Amino acid sequence: MEEIAKVYSGALFDVAEEKGSLDEVQQQLGQFADAVAEDRDLQVFFFSPYFSSAEKREGIAKAIDGGNPELVNFLELLAEKHRMPALFKIRQRFDELWDEANERLEVTVTSAIELDPSIVENIGAEIERKTGKTIELKSEVDESIVGGLVLRVGNRVLDASIRSRLDKLRREVLHAA
Question: What global pTM score does this model have?
Answer without folding.
Answer: 0.70
